[in-house]
TrEMBL record:
Name recorded for this polypeptide: Amino acid ABC transporter substrate-binding protein (PAAT family)
SMART domains for this protein: PBPb
Annotated InterPro entries: Lysozyme-like_dom_sf, Solute-binding_3/MltF_N
Xref: Pfam families: SBP_bac_3 (PF00497)
Gene3D superfamilies, alphabetized: 1.10.530.10, Periplasmic binding protein-like II
Organism: Halospina denitrificans
Keywords attached to this entry: Signal
Family affiliation: Belongs to the bacterial solute-binding protein 3 family.
Record domain Solute-binding protein family 3/N-terminal: where: 37-261
Amino acid sequence: MYQVRRIVFLAAIVAVVGCTNDEGQARTLEAIKEEGTLVVLTRNAPTTWYLGRDGEPTGPEYDMVEAFASHLGVEVAYKIKPSIRSITEGIANGEGDLAAAGLTITPKRRERFRFGPPYQDVTQQVVCRRDNVQPESVEELVGLELTVIADSSYVERLETLKETHPELEWQTVDNVSTEQLLYDVWHREIDCTIADSNIVDHNRRYFPELIAPFNLNRSESLGWMMAKPRRDLESAVASWLEAFRESGRLAVVKERYYGYFEVFDYVDTRRLIRRIDKRYPKYRSYFKTAAEQYDLPYILLSAQGYQESHWRALARSPTMSAG
């Protein structure tokens, strides 16, 4: 429980339940505009959709979906799904108009669904804990406890690899997120899992002992998924995304949510987490009081305080400023 509270503090993310809507056949673009609502299936994660510190929705998929809906002149109704399987089934049975959930465009998925143009490239990575097993090839995965998300692009890749590595085995789980499996690896409950590189980059800040010893494939693309008959919606997404990219707004979204990834440092991150555990509780109430006084987020003040003094009351700057 304590670990969960700490992770919530670090990530400022909370679990939510999405709105519901009657199931039915996939709606036409004209029907979406007439009814004034775009129904979007997604999942709660830092790389897709989540609630920010102010309790309002945010995330890269959220920002893009809101921009697309504004382009169409409609509102968005989000349905937050617990798994990849529930998202694909939801699109298949008409529960949503499109899925914006960090989904990889794969040949198998293209057989069942339409996809908008790619908007981000990712790489599947094998993820383990640095002080546990560290396989460096597919051959070295044999015999390890490898667990992945059911109906994911990771399973598709593993099935392809098994054709040339028949001894390769893995387990699949449903209604569990990739983020949860990364936590399980960090917590030594499983040996390894597979995750997209953007998810790994985001989560290793909360679980710095995680490492990605090797990539499982070359880069793949993420895209929005729609029902197979919905060529009209696919065309609308394509034309909007082209303009969104050319305007520089797509680059702004990527910079906002991923721009800081390259500065990751294991030692500094481990030190920060240790100080959050040991040093920060002593000063938390002071940051909250000051934040209320000046109408600022207390986490923002806490972060600034760490940058200034590492939460040391007797710290001195080169100009002899204290605290």
